[in-house]
Amino acid sequence: MWIELQREFYLVCCVLTLFCTGLMLKYEKSFEESAHYLSLANLALMLTPLISYVQLKFNIHAPLISQIANCCILLFCAFTYLFYCSKTPPRVKDLALHCTPFVFFLSVKVIGFHTQTELMYIIYFGLMFSYVTSIWQHAPKSSSNPLKRSKLLLITITYLVALNGLVAVSYLSQSSWTYPLWSLLNISICCYLMTFSFYAAYRINQVSKQNPQSRTKHIITEDFGTQSYYSEDVIVKQRAFQLSDSVAKDCIEKMHHLLKKEQLFLDNQLTLGQLAIRLDITQHQASELLNEHMHTSFYTLLNEHRVKHACQLLMHSKNKASITQIALDSGFNNKSSFYNEFKKQLGTTPNKWRLARQEH
């Protein structure tokens, strides 16, 4: 009875994960582009319970198949690392580079399953935990993506990798705990995937409510690295999206918190759409909030905070930090744009401003 329940649970989890991943890919513009990597990571992780389902369904007891499923965790680690560290859509060269260890270990297990050495497992564990360490180091403290800020997601990823390590150690030592640990790993993976899938479905539902124009034809245009969406009936929708004064006031307070407390402006990849998601409003409403209620623009607001932050760094860094480093630490993409914006706002260069402050 328990085996049958376990088997069906694995199947439901896999189907649900596939469905919600498809939804995320369909509505990819509602999410940060690097979220594609997390979708790939979940698909790779899904292979573990899927293989377990096949084993239980057809009564297959092959250690090799279980070891192959164990390799999928390495692929999961690679894609999760790319999710946290990359700010671009999936690129072939990145995927090829980080899939290489998985392909290597998979080949070793298939070709020389009975000749594996302890050294191979040490390398395997080293790769997995180096990925986890890098993920913790690169996890942004301030990001427009709520998934990247989630400590719970980080802890869950670490737990799954650590549990997978216990399964491998138990298998190597031929312990009687191998099967219980393997079952616990599969159930944990299923719980993680189902929780994430429900969250994704909820997020898509929220975005769909905020963006009813998704049902109409969109024209996507690129403007200074941001994506703007326009529909054929945009004028009608603009009227429907006008913010009341009370809602605008709440959004302004929330925006001030995001900029002052979380220092959202330090993210040089921040877009208007991402800011709108943090404010729980549409992209058009965010634009209206800035233009009509705050009498400013998206980039003007960000650059004002970036220059103020740069001034603080200039005052406390003396001559130790370079202007280029201060520019990057303040959210600017390069030194040139920093100089132009600094001189535009303060009427002088960063070097002259710092010297003047030191003299006083």
What is the element layout, followed by pairings?
Blueprint: H1 2-26, H2 35-57, H3 63-85, H4 92-111, H5 118-138, H6 146-149, H7 151-172, H8 178-210, E1 218-223, E2 226-231, H9 234-240, H10 245-260, H11 272-279, H12 283-293, H13 298-317, H14 323-329, H15 335-346, H16 350-359
Antiparallel strand pairs: 1-2
- The average pLDDT value, as a whole number, equals 79
Strand order of the largest sheet: 1-2
| Termini gap | 80 Å
Structural class: mainly alpha
CATH level 1 class label of the largest domain: Mainly Alpha
Integer tally of domains:
3
Radius of gyration: 25 Å
Task: Estimate the helix proportion, in percent.
Answer: over 70%
The low-confidence runs, each spanning 5 or more residues with pLDDT under 50, are 210-241
What is the number of helices?
16
Domain HTH araC/xylS-type: 256-356
Transmembrane segments: 6-25, 37-56, 62-83, 119-140, 152-173, 179-202
Protein name: HTH araC/xylS-type domain-containing protein
Pfam families: HTH_18
3D structure, described in words:
The chain folds into three domains: 2-210, Rhopdopsin 7-helix transmembrane proteins, CATH 1.20.1070; 213-296, no CATH class; 301-359, Homeodomain-like (Arc Repressor Mutant, subunit A, Orthogonal Bundle), CATH 1.10.10. Helix content is 73%, strand content 3%. It is built from 16 helices and two strands. It has helices at 2-26, 35-57, 63-85, 92-111, 118-138, 146-149, 151-172, 178-210, 234-240, 245-260, 272-279, 283-293, 298-317, 323-329, 335-346, 350-359, and strands at 218-223, 226-231. It has a two-stranded antiparallel ribbon with strand order 1-2. A hairpin with a 2-residue loop joins strand 1 and strand 2. Mean pLDDT is 79; it is low at 210-241.
